[in-house]
Amino acid sequence: MERNKRIFASLLLSLAAICASAQVKPGIEVLRDRGFEGLKGKRVGLVTNPSGVDRELRSTIDILNSAPEVNLVTLFGPEHGVRGDVWAGGKVVDYVDKATGLQVYSLYGAHRSPTPEMLDGLDVIVYDIQDVGTRSYTFISTLGLVMRAAAEKGIEVMVLDRPNPLSGNKVEGNYVEPGYFSFVSQFKIPYVYGLTVGEFAMLINEEGLNLGQKGDQEHLSCKLSVIPMEGWKRSMIYEDTKLPWVLPSPNIPSSRSAICYPSAGLVGEFSGYLQIGVGYTIPFEVFGATWMDAEALKAKLDSYEIPGVEFRVIYFKPFSGGASGELCKGVQYFYTDYDKACLTLTNFYVMQAVKELYPDRNPFKDASRNNMFDKVCGTSQVRTLFAPSMKVDDMRSFWMKDAEDFKKLSKKYYLYGN
Description:
alpha/beta, 418 residues, single chain, seven-stranded mixed beta sheet, globular
């Protein structure tokens, strides 16, 4: 009996060791384990927000600021601010961080890109923000503009890599076209791009994609280094990593929210059309309206037999935003076969179903919102193809036309396998 107990205990210890070794280690932990190699003897600026943490939830700000080897001198605040205390759409201002006494410069206010004065005296800028893997999410736009500004000043950029919560295998959506580059479509990449933020930085730095907000500026490459993760594989979604999720912005409270963001965010561009859960407990996870027949919407969506996704009826009352305090009726969706599912097409199937059930409910009638929809799509062609009939089949080929080419282009920048 004692011998069996010892064998069992030994097996448990071995299993624990295997599990520990299989943990995903984000770039900040790898950097720390390497003794902050690459930062010693340099004056360091840091672009981060509350999602920049290690697995014990220690902030990258505090880790770098307390490391004797690191001279952290400046912080840069993207959308929502360094400490996450600015709500969606609010301007970030310059101030002095109370916890560290460091100067914080805003990159989401009067300036979207660091000015030469903000960069004076810096040797390297470190970037550590959890990405969501979708082009319209502004943090990668901030990264690109930081890289351009750093190139102009001869300053290094170091990206601390983190998982793509959608996995490294999802690529969906067309390239941004000339005339449609903006802060929500900064680069000529698909809407869902299947790269970690470190791989993405390498791609835009080397391929001439970091062209600035208007898309017509001279390409500049900076001196770039990426601190890769350990243990991450392209097939992983975020929950596979066992890392804690710290919301990178207020409406992405969970890693499921990150998956649902490209699935419902396009519909969300049409104010007053459908409620998508923003202002409720499950942002981007539902589609509903006060006037909706929830059962009819579910039946219509089920009839499409959309690969990899299932719908359930849901009733909910948003506590803020559109339809606040009113009962919304609609569907919640789940990806039951993630590999087969096309995340972004969920937006369009729902709009198709609503149009078939309620022909007068047309989001494209409000021309004031069409411009923002086009910006996020990176073209007006998606709307031109989809709006007349609101049939997915009329826009699907255009929407997916660049995915395979981008996979071929981006593959040489992969830092991780499957």
